[in-house]
Design brief:
Chains A, B: GO terms for molecular function: DNA binding. Chains A, B: This is LacI family DNA-binding transcriptional regulator. Two copies of one chain form a homodimer. With about 325 residues, chain A is α/β, with parallel strands linked by helices. The model of chain A has no long low-confidence stretch (mean pLDDT about 90). The first copy, chain A, has three domains: about 45 residues, lambda repressor-like DNA-binding domains (434 Repressor (Amino-terminal Domain), Orthogonal Bundle), CATH 1.10.260; about 120 residues, Rossmann fold; about 130 residues, 3-Layer(aba) Sandwich (Rossmann fold), CATH 3.40.50.2300. Chain A has a six-stranded parallel beta sheet with strand order 2-1-3-4-5-11, sandwiched between helices. A four-stranded parallel beta sheet of chain A has the order 7-6-8-9, with helices on both faces. In chain A, helix 11 links the parallel strand 8 and strand 9. At the A-B interface, helix 4, helix 5, strand 2, helix 6 and helix 10 of A face helix 4, helix 5, strand 2, helix 6 and helix 10 of B. The structure holds a DNA duplex (30 and 30 nucleotides).
Chain lengths: ~325, ~325
DNA sequence: GGACCTCTCTAGAACGTTCTAGAGAACTAG
DNA sequence: CTAGTTCTCTAGAACGTTCTAGAGAGGTCC
C-alpha cells in the first residue's frame, strides 16, 4: 500500500543532477546556483521527498539531538517540555523524548535514548541513583533538571526552592501574619530545601517561636489530612509544599467553616495549572520554567561543543504570584 | 571528552571474528555456535558496545518504530502514553514521541516524526484538518486516538462518548433524578457526541420535557461560569462535559450554599487524576485507556504488516465510576 | 568414495545520507 | 593568450549496521 519513500537519489534523477547536489540544496549549504536550487526544491516538493534523519545522522556523526527523559504523571514536566522544545529550536537542535510511566522506569527510558545516539541527556526530576547518572555522564553530557544531583560529572539546573519559601514568608509577614505554619512534602525531592527556606526566613523575621512544621506529602490527600490537626486552633497562614497539596488544604479549611483568605491565608508552590484556576485562585510560588529550560539546553550544548563552563549548577530564582488565597491578617489571636 | 562509541567492528576485531557474526549474535539470530556467541557477548559487554539504532534501521528498512503525537497540557494523554508503551513493548515495537506544546503545533510534531522513519503514526486527539491526516495516511498508516476522523484512510480508536452519557443519565435516573441538566463542552472534540448521548438517553427515559443543555467549555472556568444561571432554581443533577469543568461546577455550587450531593448531584467525564482526589471524589465516566491503547497499537501493527482489518473504527465502551458527588434525589421539586 | 547435507562462519554489497577531493566552465587579471 | 580564481557541480568513499551468497569443515548415506 505505501510505496517506497522517495530518497535523495529519486530527487536527483528527476531533476537531472547528482545526489550530492541535492544534498547541498536540502541542507541549504553553499555550492549551488540559485536556479538549480529552486529547481531541485520544486522537484523535491513535488515528489514528496523528506530527508531521512537516520541516514543523515549516521553519515554526519553529529546528531544535533538532545535526549529528554520526563514523567507522564507530572504536569509540571509538560511545562518544562514546552520550554525545552523552544530553547532547542532556537539553537537548531532537536529533541527526542522518552517517557517514564508507572510501568516504565527511568533506566529503561534512558536506555532507549542512548540507542538513539543523542548527544546529551536532559533528565527531568531524575530518580536514578547518582552513581547510575554519573556512569552515563562518563559517555555523554548529562543535565539534571529540577533536582539536585551531587556529582561533579552531572550538570544541574534547578529552582532555588529555599528562596521560594523566603518569598512566601516575606509576603505573609508583610500582610501582618505571625502565626505561619509550614506543611511538609514528605519524601518528595525539594522538601528539605523548602522546609529550610521556611525556617530560616521565620527566624530572620524574629518569629522563631512561631516556627511550626507539619508532616505532609505531595498529593491533595496529603494536604487535606495534614491540615486536620490545625482546625481547633488554626494559624493565620499556611505555606504548603506544593499546589496540589494546597488544594487539599483549601478544601479541608472550607469544609471546617473557615474562610480563605479572611480567616486563613494559604500559599502553594509551583504555579501549576491548578493554581491558576480562577475559582481556586491560589497564591503560589512560580518556578521560572523559561529560565530553567533555556539554561538546561544551553548547558547541554556547551558541554557538547566543548565550551568551558564555569559552574556545574545553575539555580534560578522563583517568583511569588500573589492571588486570592492570601490577605492581610485581620485579628491575630496571639499578639 | 567522550571517546568514540564502540561499533560492531570494534567488537569483531576484539573477538577475532567478522562483523557479520557479531551482528548475528547481537540480534540473537541463528547462525552462531554457543561458544562463539558467549565469547562475542562477553567482549561486547566489556567494551560497552551498544547497537546504533539508526544504522540498524537504515540497513534493515524496518524500524519497528511507532510515532506518537501527544499534547503536553493534557494529563489524559499521559495516561494513554503509559498504555501505548506497554502495548508496543508486548509486540516488540518501540515508540518515538513528539509533543504538541503551546508553541509547537501538530504539523511540526508530525513532521518531526516522519523524519524518524517510523512505520506508523498514532495521533492522540488530532487537531489537524482531515485532509492533512489523509495526506499522511497515503504514505504510512495513521491511527487517530480519542477523536473521530472521517476519512477512509485513517483508522480511529475512540471512546463511545455517546454511551458514556447514557450511563451517566441511567445512573442519575436510577437514583431518582428527573431534572438533569447537561453542561456542554464548547468547541472541544467529543462535545457533540456527549450531548447527543445525554439527549437520547433522557428521551429513552421519557424525560423529553426535562432536557436542558447549557453552553459551556472544557476548562474549570467554563464550568464555573456555565452553572451560574442555574443557581436560582437548581436542577437535582448535572452532567458535565469533563472533569475539569465539573470541578468548576462543584466550586460554584458550594459557594452558593448548595450541598453536593445532598442538593445537587454532579457527574464528570474522563476519570482524570482530579476526579480521584478524595476531597473532590467526583463521580465520573472512565475511558478504558488500556483497551484504547491496545487497540491502537494492534491496529497500527496490522496495517504495517498487512493483516486485513475488518473495521476502520474501534469504539471502546466507557465505564461509570460512582463516587461521592452523586446520591439519591431527595425532594424532587417537580414531580 | 562421491553426493549431499548441515553447521558455522565470512566477504561484500546494500541502506540514504554527508563529505572530501577534484573536475569543468566561466570569469578576471596581467 | 595564459594563469589564476571563483562558481557550480560530480564521483565515490564513508557512517554502522543487516543481508545475501557462498565458502569450508565435518557429518551421513548409499
Amino acid at each position: 500500500m505505501t510505496e517506497r519513500r522517495p530518497t535523495l537519489a529519486d530527487v536527483a534523477a528527476e531533476a537531472g543532477v547528482s545526489t550530492a547536489l541535492v544534498s547541498i540544496v536540502m541542507r541549504d549549504a553553499p555550492g549551488a546556483s540559485a536556479a538549480t536550487r529552486q529547481r531541485v526544491l520544486e522537484v523535491a516538493d513535488r515528489i514528496g521527498y523528506r530527508p531521512d534523519r537516520r541516514a543523515r545522522l549516521l553519515r554526519s556523526g553529529r546528531s544535533r539531538l538532545l535526549g529528554v527523559v520526563f514523567a507522564v504523571q507530572h504536569t509540571f514536566h509538560g511545562d518544562l517540555l514546552t520550554g525545552l522544545y523552544d530553547a532547542a529550536a532556537r539553537r537548531d537542535y532537536e529533541l527526542t523524548l522518552s517517557a517514564v510511566t508507572p510501568h516504565r522506569d527511568e533506566r529503561t527510558a534512558i536506555a532507549g535514548l542512548l540507542q538513539d545516539r543523542c548527544e546529551a541527556l536532559l533528565v527531568i526530576g531524575p530518580s536514578s541513583p547518582t552513581s547510575a547518572l554519573a556512569g552515563i555522564a562518563a559517555r555523554l553530557p548529562v543535565v539534571a533538571l529540577g533536582r539536585d544531583v551531587r556529582h561533579h560529572a552531572v550538570d544541574v539546573v534547578r529552582n532555588a526552592d529555599c528562596q521560594g519559601l523566603h518569598q512566601a514568608v516575606d509576603h505573609l509577614v508583610a500582610l501582618g501574619h505571625r502565626r505561619i505554619v509550614h506543611l511538609d512534602g514528605g519524601r518528595t525531592p525539594g522538601t528539605a530545601e523548602r522546609r529550610r527556606g521556611y525556617r530560616d526566613q521565620m527566624r530572620r523575621h524574629g518569629l522563631d517561636a512561631e516556627i511550626r512544621i507539619l508532616p505532609g506529602g505531595p498529593t491533595g490527600e496529603d494536604g487535606a489530612a495534614a491540615v486536620a490537626p490545625l482546625l481547633d486552633d488554626p494559624p493565620t497562614a499556611i505555606t504548603v509544599f506544593n499546589d496540589l497539596a494546597a488544594t487539599g488544604v483549601l478544601d479541608t479549611l472550607r469544609r471546617a467553616g473557615l474562610r480563605v483568605p479572611d480567616d486563613v491565608s494559604v500559599v502553594g508552590y509551583d504555579d501549576s495549572r491548578l493554581a491558576r484556576l480562577t475559582y481556586l485562585d491560589l497564591t503560589t510560588i512560580a518556578q521560572d520554567t523559561t529560565a530553567m529550560t533555556t539554561h538546561a539546553v544551553e548547558r547541554a550544548i556547551a558541554r557538547i561543543e566543548g565550551t568551558p563552563v564555569l559552574q556545574r549548577e545553575v539555580v534560578t530564582p522563583p517568583r511569588l504570584v500573589p492571588r486570592g488565597t492570601t490577605a492581610a491578617a485581620t485579628a491575630p489571636r496571639r499578639p
